[in-house]
Amino acid sequence: MYINFIIEFIVSMLATVAFAIVFSAPRKELFYCGISGALGWIFYSIISTLLGAPTLGNVVGSFVLTVFSRTLAAKRKNPVTVYLISGIFPLVPGAGIYYTSYYLIMNDMAHFSQYGLETIKTAGAIVMGIILGMAFPQSWFNRAFAPYDHK
After folding, report:
1. For residue 103, is it within any domain?
2. Which of 13, 37, 71, 91 has the highest count of CB atoms within 10 angstroms of its CB?
3. Is residue 23 a part of any domain in this protein?
């Protein structure tokens, strides 16, 4: 079971790096972008698998991703979006969006409603995690990595 988490961590890191390249993230930040996406995904995966709570997994995964992205932004002197936008990639419900659209076009309202509700719950959970992660003042992150002041 734990080997699956290791594999998922590595695959989500590689997928995030690939997306960061497409997103035109700076080359020297690609590794950190990959780690941010892998962290968000692994928290989601562990909570979804062990607790059976995928919506909670999305909240926690995006929260961890946001806090980690803000930490990296302060430490590496880059905008938080470099790490947050590319890191959110593994959590985005792409298949849910696809199937929701597909069933709408096919006029299958039962499946459309089912996939649509799941997709909205997932998107809302991701947004909630980001909001919670952004609730901390940026000064906390900046102060943690500011050079020691001799005053």
Report:
1. no
2. 37
3. yes
